[in-house]
Amino acid sequence: MRPLGNTLVGLAVWLSFMCKIVTATPNDAVPQSDRSASSELRFIAIGDWGQGGGRQKKVARAMRKWGAAQTCDFIISTGDNIYDCGVKSVNDDLFNSRWRDVYKQPKIAGLTWYMCAGNHDHGYGHVRSCDVPGYEVRYQVEYSKINPRWHFPELNYSFKKNVGTSKIKFVSIDTESISDGENVNVTDFLNRELNDPHVNWKVVFGHHPFFSAGGKDKTSRTDNEFRDKILPVLQNHN
Fold first, then answer.
1. Which conformational region is residue 126 in: left (phi greater than 0), alpha (psi within -120 to 50 degrees), or beta?
2. Is pLDDT above 80 for 16?
3. Residue 42's closest CA among 78, 13, 77, 71?
């Protein structure tokens, strides 16, 4: 996804920049003030962030402020991690200037980021410079071996968190490669991950939505591989 003209990612950022509080009991209705810290999981989810500049740093300061007040456990990125084209190697300095050196404030500097890819991370930046060979999403995956805070072991992967007596599974999927017909085994992967009787909560995240009123919405494609493949799987698993 990409902002229009000089418009700040404002809407995209503020819609996706959010605190999630997940409680240990799915149907628990106890007020938050009565919960113990061990029964809560707090994280920030943010997408379309990797543009650099003062506005990105302003959002980073807001994340730091919230993390200091609430205690943040980790961060989820919903893609478009590095504009315009992603990176050209695991040593690309954009990892520093667009990520490490931006989110370095106290309370968030040591947090793990659970990543997924957006279209720009694949080198599909819709600008001429991205047509140059060399921009590959695999470098973002390989970078996780260098910096474990950038958690991106595969284009599709899952991780679990314990919250009180409950377990939560998060599943990251690469919606861009699904839409392009390249992520051929993703339905088998999702069925396997979601058919897990040992977790109480299951959260799937990726870059693109199934439906949107946005002008650059991928669901406007007549052959929407992403929605046709993934939505029925999530519905089947409730």
1. left
2. no
3. 71
Structure tokens given for 112: 């793990």
pLDDT over 80 (residue 224): no
pTM score, whole prediction: 0.83
In 3D, which of 151, 161, 24, 22 has the Cα closest to residue 99?
151
Pairing of strands 113-114, 157-163: unpaired
Higher pLDDT, 125 or 19: 125
Q: Using CA atoms, how far apart are residues 32 and 78, in angstroms rounded to an integer?
A: 27
Question: DSSP of 96-133, one letter per residue?
Answer: IIIIITTS-STTTTT--EE----TGGGT--SSGGGGST
Helices (H), the chain: 10-16, 54-70, 94-95, 138-143, 175-179, 186-194, 225-236
- Residues in a beta bridge with 180: none
Give the contacts of 135 (CB within 8 A, at least 6 positions apart).
85, 86, 87, 88, 122, 123, 125
Alpha helices in 32-104 (DSSP H): 54-70, 94-95
Instruction: Give the tens place of pLDDT for each residue, 138-155.
Output: 999 999 999 999 999 999
